[in-house]
């Protein structure tokens, strides 16, 4: 677990452990790039109460027992250029409305997998749960999901638990399936081919 202030990590293998990489340093700069968080018994990456300068990019979170990436209690974190495949839970789970996590609600989470989603096929695939899931706690979070390619997951590829997507923004994503609440192919999650 990284609870330090102003930490940077690069070219690191975070597994096998319980949680591969847990960032819990609020109000500080946390930048981790070029890493793998694979084969952990729980989450590959857990952003727990990260502040506005919390960034993870250019990474792989695969074959973990729970979610590839879990984000709770964070304000403005950025998750980009990644793969989250073959995880036991969701590829990426944003929010904290279930008993499986703690840390409170998020605001302004930014998730985008390009350019991996352009060149290498779906970056969110083969997960037992949803590819990317914004749970009910994200109804007023103003999260941004952009340039994300999700297909072939056990649940829904792109899923916002709120019937109208709340005030979250889905921009230029490509997917096999999408739902807002239980409404398939909702207009608030447009399918845009790359």
Overall description:
This protein has 194 residues and is mainly beta. The protein has one domain (7-184): Pectate Lyase C-like, CATH 2.160.20. The chain is built from one helix and 18 strands. The strands form three sheets. Strands 1, 3, 5, 7, 9, 10, 12 and 15 form an eight-stranded parallel sheet that branches. Strands 2-4-6-8-11-14-17-18 form an eight-stranded mixed sheet, with no helix packed on it. A two-stranded parallel ribbon has the order 13-16. It is globular.
Mean pLDDT: 87
Question: How would you spell out the order of helices and strands?
Answer: EEEEEEEEEHEEEEEEEEE
Alpha-beta content class? mainly beta
Helix content percent band: under 10%
What fraction strand?
35-45%
Level-1 CATH class name: Mainly Beta
CATH superfamily: Single-stranded right-handed beta-helix, Pectin lyase-like
How is the CATH topology named?
Pectate Lyase C-like
Query: Into how many domains do the coordinates divide?
Result: 1
Which architecture does the CATH hierarchy give at level 2?
A: 3 Solenoid
Rounded to the nearest angstrom, the radius of gyration is 15 Å
What would the principal axes of the Cα set say about the shape? globular
């Amino acid at each position: 677990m990284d609870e330090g202030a102003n930490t940077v990590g690069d070219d690191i293998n975070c597994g096998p452990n319980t949680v591969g990489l847990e960032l819990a340093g609020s109000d500080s700069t946390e930048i981790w790039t070029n890493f793998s968080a694979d084969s952990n018994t729980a989450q590959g990456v857990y952003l727990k109460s990260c502040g506005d300068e919390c960034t993870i990019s250019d990474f792989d979170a695969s074959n973990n027992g729970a979610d590839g990436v879990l984000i709770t209690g964070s304000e403005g974190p950025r998750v980009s250029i990644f793969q989250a495949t073959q995880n036991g839970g969701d590829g990426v789970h944003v929010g904290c409305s279930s008993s499986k996590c703690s840390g409170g609600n998020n605001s302004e989470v930014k998730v985008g997998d390009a350019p991996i989603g352009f060149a290498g096929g779906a970056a969110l695939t083969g997960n037992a749960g949803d590819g990317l899931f914004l749970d009910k706690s994200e109804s007023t979070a103003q999260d941004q999901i952009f340039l994300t390619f999700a297909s072939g997951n056990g649940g829904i590829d792109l899923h916002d638990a709120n019937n109208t997507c709340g005030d979250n923004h889905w921009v230029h994503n490509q997917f096999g399936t999408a739902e807002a609440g239980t409404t398939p192919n909702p207009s608030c999650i447009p399918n845009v081919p790359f």
